[in-house]
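Revision sheet: structure tokens.
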Amino acid sequence: MSEYGKQVGKIQIMKNSGSVVKKKEAKKPQTSMQNLEKNKKTSAATKPVKPSSANNEASICFANSPYFESYHKALAEIISENIYLENKVAPTLCETIGHQQSLLDCNDIAFYAIRDEEVVGWIFIRREATSQRFHRGKLNMAITKKYRGMGVGQKLVKAALDHAHYIGIEKIEIQVFSNNIEAISLFEKFGFTDEGVIRDYHRLHGESISLQLLAKVFE
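Predicted:
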């Protein structure tokens, strides 16, 4: 059960509207599609409350439009490393805003890690809007180079998994490059297990990189 809307470790999770979500017993939806309709009706408001930082640490908040430009900047920075993301060229700001807005419109799970009013990391879980696959969510996460190894990833994963469990998602899946040992280790600590590997998925500077498939099933 998530301490949703309350202190999680040293972070404060806040809803875009500024209201705190009251803790209540998690209930599974009557049907997958009924839950989808419910989620669409409860999409977040546009005006956010600024996240607060404890001990000058990165704080976690729901993705919201005032941070879209900062997210775009962080995304471009990580793409330029040409290591962890498949993108070769950063999307335009307009494309980035469109993508982020689609996450909010579909009421998908989207959190930002904020430090000094700048996005330094993010985590998304997209749920397919079909009754056959509505129980599954696909996770995507990245952290800017400067803030890796500082516990930001752990905060993001905890926030996203707590919320995913709260709204009734039963299985979370992620694909990680085999050379990203730190990420694989982090997800394993949160209960993700190996579901296979796509060998020689792509080549990076002449080196063969495989794609690790991981998943977590909520009991």
